[in-house]
Design brief:
20% of the residues lie in helices and 30% in strands. With 271 residues, it is α/β, with parallel strands linked by helices. The strands form 4 sheets. Strands 5-4-3-2-1-16 form a 6-stranded mixed sheet. Strands 6-7-10-11-14-15 form a 6-stranded mixed sheet, with helices on one face. The chain has a two-stranded antiparallel ribbon with strand order 8-9. The protein is globular and about 50 Å long.
Length: 271
């Protein structure tokens, strides 16, 4: 495992404008070619967080999936972010993880935001995802998932060569500024309790529902200390996380050896 360069793309997503957002974010990503290993976009980066966007949800053979794969190939980096995507099982808030070799994996948001009635229109994901990239094991999550520490928990398996589930946890979000303190606090808690780095991207600006977003995207180390924070403006910033520092911390403070063993169960998809 080598050091990993992570680029946070804290953008002002256009409301219900997939083509405009693809063009906008492509321009923000362009200078990153050859300069990063992992690019993180916000949640629902093609539309903003909207129940009404379900009517224009694309399929997996649509332009957004093709676009994110094209961006990964052009940048020579993994690119991730979520969009509303339609399948035979329903429309999911689906995080895509594209790699420059043409690989594509996805995670469907498990915890749907009841406060905004997301659960009434979208389908819920069943399973957690861990991807491997550049020697790092990465667990991507979407927005409201941040509030559920059991689902986010980094499990330790002695039988699996004494390995933790992941080294880096990602969160992509549309998290309004009214709850910004919870966002900042929970990100730090996830990093500390999971003995991992956390990289989180939130959007900025005001959406079509009049909600304001303050950003507060960050890269946080295993002690809960931010090594990068972005305040309230559109910005693309890159930070490098240290594989050696993480390994040393886990040796020095092996809290995973005292953790409770458990399994994560599946849930039925909601409609």
């Amino acid at each position: 495992m080598q050091d990993l360069r992570i680029s946070l793309v804290q953008g002002d997503t256009r409301w219900h404008d997939p083509a405009g957002n693809r063009e906008h974010y492509a321009a923000l990503l362009a200078p990153l070619a050859g300069q990063t290993d992992l690019v993180v976009l916000p949640e629902t980066f093609t539309s903003g967080f909207s129940n009404e966007a379900i009517d224009k949800a694309e399929g997996m053979d649509g332009p957004t999936v093709a676009w994110i794969s094209e961006q990964a190939a052009r940048l020579g980096a993994a690119v991730t972010g979520s969009a509303q995507l339609r399948t035979p099982e329903g429309v999911f808030n689906r995080l895509l993880f594209a790699t420059p070799d043409g690989g594509l994996q996805y995670y469907d948001k498990r915890h749907l935001f009841r406060y905004a009635n997301e659960h009434e229109r979208y389908a819920a994901g069943r399973d957690r995802l861990t991807v491997e990239w550049k020697g790092w094991r990465i667990n991507p999550q979407v927005c409201y998932d941040l509030r559920f520490p059991v689902f986010c928990r980094n499990r330790y398996d002695v039988e699996r060569a004494g390995q933790l589930d992941f080294d880096l946890q990602l969160f992509v979000a549309n998290w309004p500024s009214a709850r910004a303190y919870a966002w900042r606090t929970l990100l730090r808690a996830r990093a500390i309790e999971n003995l991992c780095f956390v990289a989180a991207v939130n959007r900025v600006g005001v959406d079509g529902n009049g909600l304001h977003y303050a950003g507060d995207s960050a890269v946080i180390d295993f002690l809960g200390q931010p090594q990068l924070e972005i305040r309230e403006r559109e910005q693309v910033t890159t930070s490098t996380i240290s594989a050696a520092a993480l390994a040393e911390h886990r040796v020095r403070f092996p809290a995973m050896l005292d953790a409770d063993a458990f399994q994560l169960g599946a849930v039925n998809a909601a409609r």
